[in-house]
Structures are given as structure tokens and as C-alpha cells.
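Human: We require from you a standard protein entry with sequence in single-letter code and fold as C-alpha cells, and nothing else.

Assistant:
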Amino acid sequence: MKKIVVWMLAVVWMLSCCMPSWALAEQDQPAYTLDRVVILSRHGIRSPMSGSGSMLADITPHSWFQWTSRPSELSLRGAVLETLMGQYFRLRLEKEGLMPENYRPEEGAVRFYANAKQRTQATARYFSAGLLPVGQVPIEMHADYDSMDPVFNPVLHFVTEDYTRDVLAQVSEAGGIRGLEGIHAGLKDAFSLLMEVTDMAQSEAYRDGKYGDLMSGEATLTLTEGKEPAMQGAIRTGTSVADALILQSYEETDPEKAAFGHAVSDGDLQLIHSIADTYTEMLFGAPLVAPNLANPLLREIRAELTAEGRRFSFLCGHDSNVCSVLASLGVEDYLLPDAVEQRTPIGVKLVMERWLRADGTAWYRAALVYQSPAQLRSMEQLTLENPPSEFPLRFEGVETNADGMMSEADFLGLFDRAIGTYEELLERYAPEAAEDAA
């Protein structure tokens, strides 16, 4: 028996020695080769949307962090963090062979396109500096500076009475029989904690009732053609304050000072930010609303996924863009781990990767990539050994193979379906507009 085993081993060894070099190399080849990457990014850390003399200044007796940028603009920390993220992707894409070291892109191989706001243009600029330190790439801007580019502007392209009625009914479903009031009631603990941390009850403006009672305020949703969905009431006020508080928690090095002298955990901040998460989902994530808002951006991304000669695309917008695109594509529900903002964290990247298998077929993987709260605060170097968080996404009605990949037909079909949904909604609710568009 021993002789037979030794003989068989010898045969295997001789066959391997005689095997052509190309065959051996083929055995060492990875199962997939990265062919293209398309990223839809939210801008990085910015200052709050309003400055001194605003509601934020009035609604708490405390002074806010002294920001390094004007209201709504990318902060210095945001700039550093985006550069670090770009450097991480450089290491990652070099490792996968999509880009050589010190890549200087050939014409048309790389595209950067951002909304015309300072925070989005600057985010794209700093990310590109990290990704391509010796490559000169323009940051496209297709609207007047500081205005909203129609591709990134999450406005309603049509509104009718029937459409408004059905949207309100759909959004209200989340609150059960109490509708929007029920949604607000579900945030009771979050509102209570927000008021406690900011000491709202001690502010003169709050005592005067200038901004209403967050614990019992009503919410109203308004839809107007050519404008973003709008919500009035406590949830809007709470979202503005929660947003500023979370951003302050990233910027201020003293965590207790960041919480106005209170001891809070990331779990507490997560609860507070659930107000903003709910607000964003209500305005931009409803199935009837998302395709209406995201249609131009969906078409732009769909074109980038198949653009001839393209290796890498970076589109930079806002949380409303990421939310409405994912909702339009039918993403399965998720809550991000190791994140205060569990839906669309600051600086989050929706990363769509096209991989080629040895048999010539193309497969896609989609994930959200974002820096953890600790990485945001410490501005630590991101490397392949210390990467940002990455959360794989799944989509309704789309199966993945054993490697977690979606077929190209299925993934591109998500975009075709979402674009088709917009056209169906237009036909159903605004047939005259549909005829004009045709």
C-alpha cells in the first residue's frame, strides 16, 4: 500500500513539473478581477447649515463649537478625513490592480463630478488628492457655484393632488393608525434625550415657545413641484439640532464639552440622530417619492456604470441623494454598525464595483464605506490593515452568488427598473406631463 501511495505522489509531482507555465499561472489567478468602480459619496464633515443668530444659537443656553468653516461648508477636519479616505482607496485599488502606483489617468478613464455647493466640490477635491496624488483630474461642476445642480437636486419633478394623497398615506403608514403623529411619538425618547443634552428648557427662546414643544409638536408634510419635500414641526427642528450636535461630537476633542457638559455615549448619540434618520427617510426614502427625486441621478450613475473606457467614477452629493438612490433601487432595510448615523453617515460612500470572472462574466458588489466615529474623531490613518467600515448591501428581488456578487444583468436591471418606475409614476399621476416628455 505504501508503494502505491509513493508512486501516486511521484506521478502528481512529475505532472506538475511538466505543466505549462501558463497553466500554473492560471491556477494562481484570483477568481475575480476588479474592472470598474463607481462611487456616490455624501460630502464630508461640514459646519451646521445655520450660523450665529439662528435657531441653533437660540435654542440652547450653551455656545456651540467654533467651526473652521462658514455655515454648511466643509470643515478643516472634513478636508483631512476625505484625503485619508482617498488615500485608502488608492491603496485598495492598487492592490486589486485597477490602478498602478502613482496613477496618472489617461483621458476618460477617471471622472469626478460634484454638486456645485462648496462642501461637495471640496469633498471631491480632497478625495481626489488622496486617490491620485500626482494625477491631475478636474472636478466637474455643471451649475453656477453655490447653486444646486439639477442632477443632484432632490426636487419633485411632478406633483398632483392624487400623488400627494398617496404619498402622505404611504409615509404615514410608518406611524400606524396615528400616522405622522405616531412617527413623532416613536421618537419620544430621542427628543427627550436631545432636550436634556442641549438643556433646551433653559434657553429663553424655548421658554418663550419660539420653536414649539418638541415633545408634543405636530408634523406636516408638503409636496410642491420643483422643490424638495418639506416637513414642518418638531421633527424638523429636532433634526437641525441633532445634526449640529452630532457634527460637534466629531469636531470637539473633549467629549463632555461636545455634549455641553453631559456624559453621553455613542449609543446616546445614535438615539439622538434617529430623529434625523427618520426625517431623511420620510422626505426622501418613500417608494413613491424616491424615484421622483432621484431620476436624473439614477440616469447619471447608470451611464457611469457602462461608460466606455471608464475605470473610476466619483459623484459627490448629499445624504438625500444617497437615501433616494438606495430607496429607488430597492435596498433591503439596514442599520449600519459602528456608526452614530446609521443610514447615511457623514462622508459615506456608496461603492459599486464591477468584477470580471475568469469565464468572462461580469459581476457587481455594492457596499457602504464610511469612517467609524472613532476614526472621524482621531483622524487616524486608513490602511488595508486599518480600513474604514464597510457594509455590504442587498437589494429586493436580486440574488447573489456564493461570493456575494450580483450578476451584471441583475445589477443594471435595478437602475433600469428604478428609471422605469419614475416613468410609470409620471404616466399614472401626470399623464399630460408624460406625453410632453415623450
The chain has two domains: 32-156+288-437, 161-284.
